[in-house]
Amino acid sequence: MPQLLLELFSEEIPARMQAQAARDLERLAREHLAKAELAFGEVRTFAGPRRLTLVIDGLPVAQADRTEERKGPRTNAPEKALEGFLRSTGLTIEQLEVRDGVYFGQLDKPGRPTPVIVAETVEAIVRGFPWPKSMRWGGGTLRWVRPLKRILCVFDGAVVPFAIDGIESGDLTEGHRFMGGDHAPFAVADFDDYAAKLRARYVVLDAAERKSIILEQSRAVCAARGLELVEDEGLLDEVAGLVEWPAPVLGDMDASFLDLPPEVIRTSMRVHQRYFAVRDPATGRLAPHFLVVANIEATDGGAVIAHGAARVLTARLSDARFFWTEDQKPGAIEAWLEKLNGVTFHAKLGTMAQRVGRITALAEEIAPLVGADRKLAGIAARLCKADLASGMVGEFPELQGVMGGYYVRQTLAQSVIGGGLSTDEIDSIADAVRDHYKPLGPSDSVPTAPVTVAVALADKLDTLVSFFGIDEKPTGSRDPFALRRAALGVLAILNSTNARIWLKGKLYQPLYFALIHANIAEQARIKDSVDFNVYKVPGAAKERFDKLSREAISYGEKINGSRPPSANDTTIIDSLLAFFADRLKVLLRDEGKRHDLVDAVFALGDDDLVRIVARVEALDGFLKTDDGASLLAGYKRASNILRIEEKKDATTYTGAPEALPGSAPEETALMAALATASPQIDTAIAKEDFTAAMIALSKLRRPLDDFFDKVFVNDPDFAVRRNRLLLLSQIRAAADRVADFSRISG
Question: Is a pLDDT exceeding 50 seen at residue 427?
Fold first, then answer.
C-alpha cells in the first residue's frame, strides 16, 4: 500500500527537545488520521539536529465511502422545520424514513483522496506543534522551534501539494551541512530512497543508531590508547542530538588539573563542553584525556579539533583551579555562612541564613527518629548550604552539595569549627552535606546514612512546609519550587531506610517544628491550636513545642517584614499530609502496584509509608492466588447483599451473629471459621505481618463458598435472615481490617 514520507527541515533543533518532538509528531499524526477515519499501518518518526521525519506505511489512496444518518424533525413539526432539514441535507421528502414519528435521512459521503487529508493534517500539526519554546521569523506568523526551511511531503511517490506560511511542500531535502559534496538539495521518492541518499551524504537519520556509533567508536578510540570511556547515558543522549555524522576524537589535557576534585573535572567537561571523561582502567581514576564527538570526519584525524577542544577545556579548568584555591583559605566557611544573611531565599520566607536555622532545628528533632546523633545532625545542617556562597559553586552551580562535602571535611579536619570530632564523625557530617540534596530524581541514589537522612529530610520538609505555609502549592503541571520532587524525595528516603516517622504523630512533630521555625503560623496561638492528644505528642515534646513557640515569636519580631501571612498550622500540616498521600500513590503506581490496591489500602486511613507498602505488596500477592480471587468474589457478593438489604431495611447490620437452633451446617461452619480467623488476622496486623494476615483471611474462602452454595440468606424467618446478614457483615469487617476490598476491581 502507499507510503507517506514527511520531513520538516529547519535550523538546529535543541538536542533536549528532539526525542519528545519525535513522540509528539507520531502522536499528532495518529490522532489526526484516526479522526479522519483513515486507516494506516506502521508509523515511524526520526529526530535529528535539523530535521523531524515521519513515515507512515499502509495508507489507502482515499477514505472509504461513508453513510451518515441525520435525525430530522418530528412528523408533526411545522412545515418550515422540515423544509430547513431538507435544505441542509440536500434530500427530498421521498428519501426520508420515518421511525417513531421522527424523520431520518441517509447521507452518502464519498471518501476524500488521501493527499487532501494529508495536506490538512500536516498544516494542523505544524501550526499546533507543542514545542516547549518556539519563535517567529521574518514577516510570517508561523511559530517553530527554529526557522523552518523546507517541507518534504511525498505520498505514493508524488508530492502532496500545499504551502504553510509561504513554505511550499516538495520532494527536496538536504544532506550534511559541511560534508557530502556540493550540498545541493536532492529529490527523493520514498523512505528507502530518502534514507539511502541521506546516508550517502553523511547523515545518520536514526538517533538510536547515532548513539550506538558514538558509544562503539568512543570505546574503540579509548581502548587503542589503553584507556576506558566514562560512560554517561544522559550526555550520550544529548551529544547524539548535536551531530548528524558522529566522529569521536580523543584529546589530551594538562595532567596537573587532575589534582582538582574529579566532580569538578567531569562537570566542566560534561556541562560546559559536552565532552566525555576518560579513566585509567588500572587505577580507576580519571586520566588526563577527554573525548569530544565531532560532526565531521576531519582529514587530519581530528588533531585540530582535539587541540581546540583542549584549549577551551584548559581555560575552564584554570578558572576551576582558581576557585578551588580561593575556597580553601582559612575561615572561608564561616565567611560564607555570614554571606547567607544577605541571600534571600524567598521574599516571604526570609534569607538563606534563616532557612539554615530552620533546617538545623528540624534536623536535630528528626535525628533521634532515624538513629542519628543529634549533635552531628545539627552541625551538618548548619553547614549544608555554606557552599552556595563559595566561588566554585558560583561558577559551577551543579556542584552544590558536592563541593560543600569537600570543604566541610577539610575544615572540620583542621578543627576550625568542629574541634574534638573523630574522623568517623567528620566523615558522617561531610557526607551529609554532600548528599543532603538527594535524591534529585527517580534514578538518583537515596541516602541511607543516619546523619545524612536527618539533614536530607529536614531540608525537604522545610521546603514543603514553608511553601505550603505561604500557599505556594503545586497546581496542575505548575510546580516552580519542585515541591513534588521534594515530597517524592522524602518518601524515597523513608522507603529505603524503613524510618518509622510516617506515623501521623511522629511525622507531625518534625513538620510542626518546621512550621514554628518558618514563622508561618500565628505563633502566640500555636500551642493552643494543637490537640496534642490526637497526635500522640509526648509531654516532653509539648514542653519543647512551647519553648520553640516562644522563641519563634521573638524571632519573628526581628525579621522586619519578611514574615509570611499567618495561617492555621494544623490546616497547613493536614494539607501537606494529604499531598504526601497523593505522591505516595503515584510512587507506588509507578512501581507497578495496581492503583485499586493502593486505593484499597489508603482507604484504611493508614499513613505509615513502610506499613502501606507492606500491605499493598501482601495484598497483591494474595489476590494472585486462587484463594484470593475467590475470596474477593465472595466479599463482593456479601457486600452487595448487605448494601441492598441495609438500604431496604434502613439500618446497618452490625454485631455478632448467634448460633440459632436449626442453623444450616454451612452457616455454623462459616461462623466457626470466622471465630478462628478473626483473632489470627488481628494478631498478624498488630505484628505488621500482612502476609500472615492474608493467609488467615484465606481460610474463610472455602466456608464462604459453601455458605453461598447451600444457604439462602433472605430466609422468611426474620431472626434467621438477620443472623445471616450479621454473619456477612462480620466477614466484610474481617476483610476490611486488611484492606478496603470494595475498592478492588475484579
Answer: yes
Q: Which residues pair with 172 in a beta bridge?
A: 187
Residue whose entry in the numeric block shows the C-alpha cell 542519628: 372
pLDDT of 251 above 90 = yes
pLDDT per residue as tens digits for the range 209-233: 999 999 999 999 999 999 999 999 9
Query: What is the rounded (10 degree) CA torsion for 411, 417, 421, 424?
Result: -40
Give the CATH superfamily of 334-592: Hypothetical protein af1432 (1.10.3210.10)
DSSP 8-state assignment for residue 144: B
Classified as helix, coil or strand, 43 is: strand
DSSP-derived 3-state class of residue 387: helix
**Average pLDDT of every residue of the chain:** 86
Give the chain's end-to-end CA distance (angstroms, integer).
Answer: 42
Say yes or no: do domains 334-592 and 611-743 share a fold: no
Per DSSP, helices labelled H in 113-232 are 114-127, 191-200, 207-224
CA distance 670 to 688: 26
* Predicted structure pTM score: 0.74
H-helix segments, 470-502: 483-497
pLDDT reported for residue 415: 64
Q: Is the pLDDT of residue 560 over 50?
A: no
Element (H, E) at 162: none
Query: Minimum mean pLDDT among 83-92, 511-520, 695-704: which range?
Result: 511-520
Q: At the fourth CATH level, which superfamily is domain 611-743?
A: Isoleucyl-tRNA Synthetase; Domain 1 (1.10.730.10)
Instruction: Using DSSP bridges, classify how beta strands 286-294 and 148-155 pair: parallel, antiparallel or unpaired.
Output: unpaired
Residue type at 497? T
- Give the span between the Cα atoms of 215 and 221, in whole angstroms: 10
Which three three-digit cell numbers place residue 367?
535525628
Provide the 3-class DSSP secondary structure of residue 501. coil
Do 22 and 47 touch, CB atoms closer than 8 A?
Answer: yes
Whether residue 550 is predicted with pLDDT greater than 60 in this model: the reply is no
- The DSSP letter of residue 370 is G
Q: Is 682 helix (H, G, I), strand (E, B) or coil?
A: helix
- Give the chain's radius of gyration (CA, Å): 35
CA 696 to chain centre: 37
| 5 sits in which H/E element | strand 4-10
Closest CA to 614 of 628, 633, 625, 598: 598
DSSP state string for 270-311: IIII-PEEEE-TTT-SEEEEEEEEESS--TTTTHHHHHHHHH
Cell of 716: 422468611
pLDDT at 418 over 80: no
Q: Where are the domains of the chain?
A: 4-62+114-200, 66-109, 207-327, 334-592, 611-743
The predicted pLDDT at position 436 comes to 97
User: Is the CB of residue 250 less than 8 Å from the CB of residue 271?
Assistant: no
**Cα-flanking dihedrals φ and ψ of residue 340, to 5°?**
-65, -20
For the record, the C-alpha cell of 419 comes out as 574541634
Written as nine digits, the cell of 280 is: 585509567
Stretch 363-375: mean pLDDT? 88
Query: With the C-alpha atoms ordered 656, 661, 667, 670, is the resulting torsion angle positive or negative?
Result: positive
Find residue 150's DSSP bridge partners: 9
